[in-house]
């Protein structure tokens, strides 16, 4: 049972969200665009449970907490695009660019117990029992550098080709596995645009699609490639112990996929849909494994 009237739980925060972009058409059909996004966030949480609010707070003679968080995100991106139609039959568009993504987070938390009275709450946490104080903090950051490109080519508005590539470098992996290369390609054929389909009035649209490519995943913690340590108590003395075994051989999780499909619309679009088949295979799967702390 908690008496909520004597519980303080307040959070104040500040957020800054900014974006700056510029675009320039160098010549007709050729453009360059650059954009910078910056987000900054900070917050302070004040918590105090007076000694009469719960059994735990009574036993501890009051519980005070103060938690601070800080985060920054920076995303910089620049890319060039080119689009042109040649001889009324060939439509070409090309895009190439790079981006840089930086994320940082920091936290600091303090907890104090055993106050003489509840008059000051957590405004004087030093008044708590210093032998029971708890301090914890975290810091982490990650960086992602990417280069990418895409080419689209359309012939006679019937045959569509797409080729893409991207190379990503992540700080989450070891020094010799930071970068991954991920290409893909696709082809589409608008069969309904062919001369031999003009007399088939029941078919409104008919398209064949083929695609194949590789995608990458970096869905792990920021420091899983390193050995991590945490605080521990040894017979009343502070110390550290290993908490996570690092793996410097961690690399991008890669998924290869092949798709083939047919899109159709029939009978004045009364019946439409898609029939497809795909094959997917994932290699270098990123997975957490828990080890026992000791063997007996």
Walkthrough of the structure:
The chain has 296 residues and is mainly beta. 2% of the residues lie in helices and 65% in strands. Strands 1-2-3-4-5-6-7-8-11-12 form a ten-stranded antiparallel sheet, with no helix packed on it. A two-stranded antiparallel sheet has the order 9-10. Strand 6 and strand 7 form a beta hairpin. The two termini are 42 Å apart.
Radius of gyration over alpha carbons?
A: 29 Å
Q: What portion of residues is helical? A: under 10%
Overall pLDDT confidence: 90
Main beta-sheet annotation: 10 strands, antiparallel
Overall number of strands: 12
Find the structural class using helix and strand composition: mainly beta
* Number of helices in the DSSP assignment: 1
- End-to-end distance: 42 Å
Write the layout of secondary structure elements.
Layout: E1 7-27, E2 30-49, H1 55-59, E3 63-86, E4 90-113, E5 134-155, E6 159-170, E7 179-190, E8 203-217, E9 228-234, E10 237-244, E11 253-266, E12 271-283
Antiparallel strand pairs: 1-2, 2-3, 3-4, 4-5, 5-6, 6-7, 7-8, 8-11, 9-10, 11-12
Quick summary:
The protein is mainly beta.
Index terms:
10-stranded antiparallel β-sheet; two-stranded antiparallel ribbon; 296 residues
